[in-house]
Specification:
This protein is an alpha/beta fold. It has helices at residues 7-19, 35-47, 75-84, 95-98, 120-123, 127-142, 154-166, 196-201, 204-217, 223-237, and strands at residues 2-4, 24-29, 50-55, 89-91, 146-150, 172-176, 241-248, 264-271, 274-281. The strands form 2 sheets. A 6-stranded parallel sheet has the order 1-4-3-2-5-6, with helices on both faces. It has a 3-stranded antiparallel sheet with strand order 7-8-9, with helices on one face. The protein is globular, with a radius of gyration of 19 Å. The structure holds adenosine monophosphate.
């Protein structure tokens, strides 16, 4: 596996692959890799000749009180995982290489439906601006034919798809489904923050989504009743502090009152200092 840290070298190498007729698949990550990430790599492999993975903990998508500094970093183990997955190139730039001191251009995906200001965007202002900006930069450096994102970050993949459409980017976005632990907890690099006791409580989040899904399938149409029951379930069975539990239109993220078409049920909650998210499309 080739490891490249210089963005210019990455661009030149990627261009040379394209010139040789290879189709390039790209999986952007922040590292601390797990089976959620490798599932996306396998999707990229299926559609492409060469797979490039980036590892970059992007400072501009973290708020001032968030976990940028303590975000798990384990490059040695990550390299082992990527080699095992037969990834062709790891793009591993430093913050200095990606952001010059006078960096001043940002991408905002907002508009009519305010996609970046709903759900996670409410408690994480500026987060999706940071995400869209880094993803556009990575796309310009790697120049992939296909990029794979996870449904785990549903709002993120929706915003990226919107950016690609609005800015006429020549890349196809594929969304991979959520990979879970045996007990249902969505795999996440942040799960490593959890204490033993918190880890035991963490699957409650997924269970609350399943409870909501069952209510929908059983015919409950009133979103507020479903939300109230799911929230009560979380609070009675764990020490989670709920950020949001929402039932929204999967395309616009607008709140839905009557459930009579496909919906996204999404939850974000804090277990101690750790913020976990999960979702289901029903
Ligand atoms: P991250 O390293 O957390 O920024 O995630 C990199 C990519 O992996 C994003 O597209 C995430 O949505 C995706 N991802 C993270 N966790 C999972 C999971 N449990 N299942 C599927 N994809 C995931």
């Amino acid at each position: 596996m080739k490891i490249i840290s210089d963005p210019k070298k990455m661009f030149l190498y990627s261009s040379s692959l394209r010139k040789r007729g290879y189709k390039i698949g790209f999986v952007p990550t922040m590292g601390a890799l797990h089976e959620g990430h490798t599932s996306l790599i396998r999707i990229a492999k299926k559609y492409c000749d060469k797979v490039i993975v980036s590892i970059f903990v992007n400072p501009i998508q973290f708020g001032p009180k968030e976990d940028y500094k303590r975000y798990p970093r384990n490059i040695k183990k990550d390299i082992q995982i990527l080699k095992k997955e037969k990834v062709d190139v790891l793009f591993y730039p430093t913050v200095k290489q990606m952001f010059s001191k006078d960096f001043s251009t940002f991408v905002e995906v907002d508009g009519k439906f305010c996609l970046s200001k709903k759900l996670c965007g409410i408690s994480r202002p500026g987060h999706f601006r940071g995400v869209a900006t880094i993803v556009l930069k990575l796309f310009n450096i790697v120049f992939p034919d296909i990029a794979v994102f996870g449904q785990k970050d549903y709002q993120q993949q929706l915003i990226i798809k919107k950016m690609v459409k609005d800015l006429n980017l020549n890349v196809k976005i594929i969304t991979g489904s959520i990979v879970r632990e045996k007990d249902g907890l969505a795999k996440s690099s942040r799960n490593s923050y959890l204490s033993k006791e918190q880890r035991l409580q963490a699957p409650i989040l997924y269970q609350s989504l399943l409870l909501a899904k069952k209510m929908v399938i059983d015919g409950e149409k009133d979103a507020s009743k479903i939300i109230a029951k799911a929230k009560k379930f979380i609070l009675q069975n764990s020490s989670f502090k709920i950020d949001y539990f929402s039932i929204v239109n999967p395309k616009t993220l607008e709140n839905i009152k009557k459930v009579n078409r496909p919906v996204l049920i999404a939850v974000a909650a804090y277990l101690g200092k750790t913020r976990l998210i999960d979702n289901l499309v029903v």
